[in-house]
Design a protein that fits this description.
The complex is a heterodimer of chains A (393) and B (146). Chain A has 393 residues and is α/β, with parallel strands linked by helices. In chain A, a hairpin with a 2-residue loop joins β7 and β8. In chain A, α6 packs across α10. The longest helix of chain A is centred in the first third of the chain and has 16 residues. Chain A is globular and about 50 Å long. Chain B is mainly beta. In chain B, 5% of the residues lie in helices and 38% in strands. In chain B, the strands form 2 sheets. In chain B, strands 7-6-5-8-9 form a 5-stranded antiparallel β-sheet, with helices on one face. A 3-stranded antiparallel β-sheet of chain B has the order 3-2-4. The chains are: A alpha/beta (393), B mainly beta (146). Chains A and B meet through β6, α5 and β7 of A and β1, β5, β6 and β7 of B. β6 of chain A pairs parallel with β1 of chain B.
Chain lengths: 393, 146
């Protein structure tokens, strides 16, 4: 442990989301969605967007920070950062970058955001077109391995083989997300419950993923306002401190053509110890968890790799009742998550984690003081963070 | 031999910087050529410009037997590409090569796509030539060893 830490240095003082749409259904352009989420988050914080002086995002977000600053009349842009890597691996990493800028005096008020309009810009979950392919994909696409589900099913299959994981463990994750979404009016799957029979009858996408093991694809935007801990008392919300935020990946995680030595992993083995060490907590202290679901198998591996359960105990641990708010052993994805609320590359999970600290979740865990987020399993780099209430500082 | 997957997927061409050109040239000649470090003599895949072990730039392509074991697999049902709309399920395997420091290759597992797949099973490479494309190319597929 060294004295260089983000613990308690930065607080979340506002969150904002656009309405969440099914993929391609947004009436607004992606950049307008970003603006709407940022303006909403600033209003939630009680500040003018003109007083924001930094932007942090991830996954190559197309809404350029300088254009945002110009559009919003921002007086003094002091920080603009992009966490490398695709998918949702950078959600908590972008928060780490923004928080680091504040903690080191580079900025005062950073908005972390993500905006997506797939109708405008094309889908993630489709194979590449064209008659020729070169580079790493030349070694996978001609064999029909091209979509995110296909890239990650291979890892999950091996993990399930190694540890005797049953399909019902994946099902429990999906059922918990859908159950939570039924109480969340923001959720795209609000009013569309899922039960065991419907899951079992759903078609395979790629074994071991049924349809309901796969995230949605959505349009929308989400944003979060960060300031220094000293300033947090000036805002209306109860303080929600960032206790820890880490990013990265294990040895040669990106070795091409599925050659990473430790293959059947969610990429969190090296991050998890750093995450808990910075926060000065253990997995058993965590009150509520949001864990990025690109696919349920990644959630399962992430939770194991963060020490919430042993690899060979997953069939007992991953039962829906254990994952439901408010009373489950580990309330999971309490907004409905990427499966059933919205796939905003996971930033919605970070917002839900903050709402749990504020006591504002539609599936509130009573007295939640430690609220954790796992961002983007199986990609590289990945990231994670822990938020804490006043009492945790 | 007919192709395992229906035609229409993108065909592989060597990367413009030439990094994997010997591999694709090798499959045309029914040879499996992978990278091996001229300095520390260890095998490496996928292709890269530097040896990740000893950091030598002296990487060469050398021939290794197309035989391995199934490290993982997946049975794909949902066609994400229009060319596979009527394909039905198909098997993609990740094959580890004990003869080459256990580097891995992706391919299809030939045979009944609905049959069970055993992780750890031995497989043998089968070169699948595509002559009617521009340019022609050859994939390395896998069959259960008998």
């Amino acid at each position: 442990m060294n004295d260089r830490t983000l613990r308690g240095a930065v607080a979340v003082v506002g969150v904002g989301e656009t309405p969440y749409y099914k993929r391609g259904q947004s009436p607004d352009s992606e950049f307008k969605l970003a603006l709407q989420a940022i303006v909403t988050a600033c209003a939630n914080a009680g500040i003018s967007p003109k007083d924001v002086d930094g932007f942090a995002s991830f996954s190559n977000d197309r809404s350029d920070a300088s254009r945002l600053a110009a559009a919003l009349g921002i007086k003094d842009l002091r920080h603009a950062s992009m966490q490398w890597g695709g998918g949702g691996g950078g959600g908590s990493g972008a928060i780490a970058n923004g928080a680091a800028a504040i903690a080191t005096g580079q900025a005062e008020c950073v908005v972390v955001f993500r905006a997506l309009a797939q109708g405008q810009f094309g889908r993630f979950g489709q194979g590449m077109r064209g008659s020729r392919i070169s580079g790493e994909f030349a070694h996978t696409i001609p064999y029909g391995l091209m979509s995110p589900a296909q890239m990650f099913a291979m890892k999950v299959q091996r993990f399930m083989h190694d540890h005797g994981v049953e399909q019902n463990a994946l099902r429990a994750i999906s059922l918990a997300s859908y159950a939570h979404a039924q109480k969340n009016p923001r959720a795209v799957m609000y009013g569309q419950p899922l039960d065991e029979a419907k899951y079992d009858a759903s078609r395979w996408i790629v074994e071991p993923f049924h349809l309901y093991d796969c995230c949605q694809e959505n349009d929308g935007a989400a944003a979060m306002v960060l300031v220094s801990a000293e300033r947090a008392a000036d805002f209306d919300h109860p303080p929600c401190y960032l206790l820890s935020a880490v990013a990265g990946s294990h040895y040669r995680a990106a070795a091409p053509v599925h050659n990473t030595p430790d293959y059947a992993t969610s990429t969190f083995k090296t991050l998890a110890p750093r995450l808990f060490e910075m926060a000065q907590v253990t997995p058993t202290d965590i009150d509520v968890l949001q864990s990025y679901e690109n696919f349920t198998g990644g959630v399962l591996m992430s939770i194991v790799e963060h020490g919430f359960c042993e690899p060979d105990e997953v069939n007992e641990f991953f039962q829906t009742k254990n994952l439901l708010a408010p009373g489950g052993a580990l309330p999971l994805n309490t907004s409905g998550g990427n499966l059933a609320e919205c796939y905003m590359h996971g930033l919605g999970l970070n917002i839900e984690a903050v709402r749990q600290i504020w006591g504002q979740s539609t599936n509130q865990v009573k007295g939640a003081e430690l609220s954790m987020v796992i961002s983007g399993p199986m990609v590289t780099p990945v990231s994670a963070c822990i938020f804490g209430a006043e009492a945790t500082i | 031999m007919s192709a395992y997957l229906k035609p229409g997927l993108a065909g592989p061409v060597a990367s413009p910087d030439g990094l994997d050109a010997p591999f694709w040239q090798g499959t045309r000649e029914e040879k499996l050529l992978l990278q091996r470090c001229g300095s520390c003599k260890r095998w490496q895949w996928g292709p890269e410009w530097i040896c990740h072990r000893c950091l030598s730039f002296d990487l060469r392509y050398e021939q290794t037997p197309p035989r391995g074991v199934i490290y993982s697999y997946e049975r794909v049902w949902h066609p994400v590409h229009p060319a596979l709309k009527d394909q039905g399920p198909y098997l993609v395997v990740l094959v580890e090569l004990p003869d080459a420091d256990n580097v891995r290759l992706v391919g299809n597992l030939l045979g009944d796509p609905r049959a069970p797949v055993e992780i750890g099973a031995k497989v043998t490479g089968v070169f699948e030539h595509h002559e009617d494309t521009d340019p022609p190319f050859t994939l390395l597929q896998w069959a259960r060893s008998t």
